[in-house]
């Protein structure tokens, strides 16, 4: 079971907090110190106990005991948080410090005594659990449940190829042919081909179809199919390889391989395969360490040998070892064909009845193109009464069906393997997706901040917690467990999601482990203490008469009853995460100041316009998200938030004629430079406040900085501050007026890792330091009034992928020289009133994929040289003159041959689609 794995985060937090209190809080009373020391030793035993349970199988007794231990660990975590609130204070030395300590102990004696009593109670409960364990004589090792569980998992994980025999008839031809081509043709050097995809997508089915293909069989001297179990030893794997080759040739196998050591087995395989053309399929490899061992036994005599590996983990091999073939879920059309073939096989022609088509397509969409899920769900529905009511019930209760229906159990087993293989620290991170609604794209940076606020992220020397968390997210993506939902045009990942079927598995796991609970239009059933709660689109008073004193995270999605709101802000002493995005509140509740454990607070897109002074009590707050609110200034109380890492406070003017600075920021008090942990600050309004511009130089950890309403006279101070921000990745600055000059020439050394730069204001010429931005990926210039010779410096930036010039260029011609813009993928030219000619020299912009031309009234024709941009896939024309558009039409457009290679050409009038020209 997974309980022990999930305890790693809570255990780590509890033990770290206890150690901190015992070593740092020297003023702890003897009773409390003694209680902590006793419990510290007890918890070490509990950790070993839960690890044994994790390895021991699915005993109901053990599950019950483990669940009880887990709840006690949670209770201990809550208690320690409460304890730290009572016992921590500022230490002072000398006589004053002595008096302070006496006064403190007198004042807090009742609280410390009460805490010590609760600790003793938890210790007694843990002791009782251990006594029951021994009373029932549960011995995990002697029972052998671990080995039985492993065998069961091994059996079930290879049921997919047999179960998916129908699936190989749909959508498999193209990938099969491509893989056969990779195996039988190509270079003579031994090549590794990694077949990568999420569980249930059909990797094993496809690999078996390719392996059994006559063209492949006849091309190799030796063949071996090797299933790789998660718990294999390298010696067992080598013995399996030897056995398969001897079985194929009907050759006797020496019994001495049973006693051979690793090096002897390697030598035996190597000698057997020498000068032979062999193919070996390793099915379901999970770790690169396996390949590092395996490759030692495989000779490369340039006979055209091939190794095919199926894996869920993208970086198991890596491109350096050969070819990576990504197997994606079926497209909608093929998924529908497979579903009908399986579900309506008893109907002539396998046609879906008209009255079931709508709900059937919804079910197919829910399966997300996974052949395993489509065949399983289709097979189940084929035996059900063919009515929309019955099928709608199946759709609504898929999570329950996965848990209880034997026909769907293997889906859960196969997809759960990925979860079971996760390192302990990633299991909590992965389960966090159970909080969000279906098809909800989770912004990556938001997810990272939430993980940090919850305490899931372990420190790593030389890296910020955000960088470590980003590595965790990339790990989940590489394991095909999380999908990229949306990326910026220039390539950076914006949001992510999980497959619908995977989400059902996550919800099931989350309920098993009491990780989180979601309320959809109904009140909760309080069968367990709720730790994390998300509420979707409910107008009922779901929190009325319900206690959530142990709640750690609360999320609201969609509208909610106003009468419930007061319950959010009282009695939540353990709350670390509070997301009220879009909630119906207009004022900042004073009661929020009582949530002293709060790390993450989002009031995004609410109607509040002012913060309460009680905000200053949230001394552990790390993220304050006020984006989309009407808060225009923050008081001195913000300076008490010494752990603040991310401050977002801005909204956009959405009128038809917004001012030049259409982003409205927030005014900050003097002293903001004391918030040394700040990594993101956007947007700061610096209108007539030169002092705060100077203070920014103290925020040396900043990675993203946004500034609005900058005056020309403050440019030199801003440059002096920016020079100290060596970690800066994104910088946005807007002048106070379209005619106000952005004076940025005083920056002598630009931040070395700057990736995104947004300059809004008059420049006339680009600052000299622009040429040093070797890491710059995205650049947007607005109102710059640049001259014709100003753009030359941009062409040499080695990593620039997106360039937008909006009212930024006053010249008549833009000329892109040879080899200019080597990595540019997106070019956006907007409102360039004087531009009448764009020239792209052969070899420039070789990687350009998308071009946008908007409201350039003097431009009469497409850029000269556009025909050579062979990678250009999309051309968007917005508010362009009729003569420009006419020349590109298919029916006689004089410049049509220049753009014939572009797949998508569209014409818009003020963002409203007008005409398809492609």
What does this 3D model show about the protein?
The strands form five sheets. The protein has an 18-stranded mixed sheet, covered by helices on one side. A five-stranded parallel sheet has the order 2-3-4-1-5. A hairpin with a 5-residue loop joins strand 7 and strand 8. It is 37% helix and 16% strand. The chain contains 29 helices and 30 strands. The protein starts with a helix and ends with a strand. Among the domains are: 3-143; 172-326, Rossmann fold (3-Layer(aba) Sandwich); 332-412; 424-511, Arc Repressor Mutant, subunit A (Orthogonal Bundle), CATH 1.10.10.10; 777-918, Leucine-rich repeat, LRR (right-handed beta-alpha superhelix). The protein is globular, with a radius of gyration of 32 Å. With 918 residues, it is an alpha/beta fold.
Summarize the structure.
By secondary structure, the protein is of the alpha/beta class. Helices cover 37% and strands 16% of the residues.
Average pLDDT taken over every residue: 81
At the third CATH level, what is the topology name of the domain at 172-326? Rossmann fold
Relative helix content = 25-40%
Number of helices in the DSSP assignment: 29
In CATH terms, the superfamily of the domain at 172-326 is P-loop containing nucleotide triphosphate hydrolases
The CATH class of the domain at 172-326 turns out to be Alpha Beta
Major β-sheet annotation = 18 strands, mixed
In terms of structural class, how would the helical and strand content be classed? alpha/beta
Shape: globular
Q: From the 3D coordinates, which CATH architecture of the domain at 172-326 would you assign?
A: 3-Layer(aba) Sandwich
**Oligomerization state of this entry?**
single chain
Please state the CA-atom Rg, rounded to the nearest Å.
32 Å
Poorly predicted regions are 1-7, 89-109, 137-163
Strand content: 15-25%
